[in-house]
Each structure stands twice: as structure tokens, then as C-alpha cells.
Amino acid sequence: MNIRDLEYLVALSEHKHFRKAAEACFVSQPTLSGQIRKLEEELGVALLERTSRKVLFTDAGLALVAQAQKVLLEVKVLTELASEQGGSMSGPLHIGFIPTVGPYLLPHIIPKIKTNFPELELFLHEAQTHQLVQQLEDGKLDCIILAAVKESEPFIELPLYHEPMVLAVPEDHQWSELQSLPMDELHGHTLLMLGDGHCLRDQAMGFCFAAGAQEDGSFKATSLETLRNMVAAGSGITLMPKLATPKEHRRDGVCYISAEDPVPSRLITLAYRPGSPLKGRYEKLAELIQSHLEEQLPVS
Q: What is the pLDDT of residues 106-153, one digit of tens each?
């Protein structure tokens, strides 16, 4: 038995498909299948139900998968310890981002990170909050950048910046010429929102409900860009995070208005597992992002 065998087993439990698991492990399907069978022979127990067309694990197989996940996480900690001793800002770093942050934050910080930490090998992963939290817990990601939510509380969170939300309206809307608008003006209005699974949806809805606004129940967007295009098409108004908006007041059929009294905002943090030996690495990365945004962007 070796670590690679455990990786094959865990991959198979996640993908429930031999070919997909093999692709995820960058090996051929016969190789993965053969190693799983070899593992069964070594342990003297059946891990899979061979009579089924689907990949079904036996009780013993499920128990081994759970233990293998723990072992692989501990192996990752050992690797991190070695990396820390060799230089805290060198080697691979897998970072997760939520979709409402990644595409808008990364263009600002990637050049800065590469300049300041040239030996850091970045791997970027985009997923919704609940997926990132699970991947961080499982050790698949080193750290994640997301809006602070209850699900991220078990991790160590380093504050990066508070991001205001901006009101986006069609260019022919009654508010299109305004530079700012009190939130209570939204009372009685309906707003377009992202679909379920996006933490920004819950955060924006909290501010809207407090102002007496409602969600447009006839449509839920899959991305911020879909929301933006819906506004440009005259289908409604919405709240967008500041980094996702242009510097201009008006662009491509959409006008952006500062929301006030109160300013709707969210806290963006960098989260990592408690006890990680790479604490210093994450702190340096967070400090770099924080200082760069203070210099370059109108967020605080």
C-alpha cells in the first residue's frame, strides 16, 4: 500500500466513475483499476461491489475511504512543513475563489503576486462557497478567498477588504443620472438577484429586505455578467460588488450608483485551515493583497 493507491481510492469515491477518476489522477483507467484491485488483495477485503454497473463501495470500502482522506490530509501537512522549511513563499499554492470575487480581483493582484513572490506557483480554482469550504476542509485547496459567511467560521480568516455594493440600473432608468442613492429609496422596488448557492445573493438580499425591497422571483442569474446584461437589457435593477463595476458612471447601457445610508458591503477574507504550518505564507499573501487594494482601488 502506498499514498498513490489511497489517492486513487479517494478519487474513485468522489467521481464514482473509473475513467473520470483516472483522468483526475492523470493515469490510465486500467492502471487505476489494477491498483484498486491490488489494494483489495493486499487488505484481503472487497472495497467495491463488482456486480453493479455503477461504482458502489462496500461498507469496508467506505470506511477505508474515510480513513484514506484523513491520511492524505496529514500527508499534505507534512508536505507543507517541508515547504515551510524550504522557503515560505515558494512552491505550489492552490487558491480557491468564489465566482463573484475571482474574475474581478485576480487581474489586480496576480501581477503583484508574481512580482513580489516569483517562486510561488499559483493554481487558481473557482467554485461556490460551499464547494470551496469542503475542498479546503479536505485538503484539496491550501486557502480560499471568499466573502465571510457562517460556513467559513471554522477556519482562520484574514480580512482583506470591505467591498461596497453598487446599484446598477438601465441607462434610461429614472435614477440613471444620480451619483448616489439612499437605500430606503429601494422600498417597494424589486431587484434582480443571483441564483441559489451564491453567498452574494444572501448578502444582497439582506440589505434589500432591510430597505423594504423585494427579489424579482421570475429570474435568477447564474453569474454577475448575466445580471449586468439583464440590467442593460432593461429587465430590472440589481446590486453589484464594487470590483465588478467600471470606474465610469455609465458603460454599455448600465449606470452605476453608489448606495448609501447604509452602504451595503461585504467582508472579503482569506481563509485557511487552523494549525496549518503555512500560516506565515497566508499572512504575507493577505498583507500584499490588502496593501495593493488600498493603493489602487476605491474600496476600504
A: 999 999 999 999 989 999 999 999 999 999 988 889 999 999 888 888
Task: Give, as one character, the DSSP assignment of residue 187.
Answer: T
Grid cell of 96 as nine digits: 480557491
Record the cell numbers describing residue 276, joined without a space: 496549518
Question: Is residue 143 a contact partner of residue 270, using CB atoms and an 8 Å limit?
Answer: yes
What global pTM score does this model have? 0.78
Return the SS3 of 184: helix
Q: Quick one: what percent of the chain has pLDDT higher than 70? A: 96
Mutual angle of helices 3-15 and 29-43, in 10-degree steps: 110
Q: Quick one: CA dihedral 69, 75, 78, 84, positive or negative?
A: negative
Nearest CA to 62 among 40, 73, 47, 75?
47
Contacts of 56 (CB under 8 A, 6+ apart): 48, 49
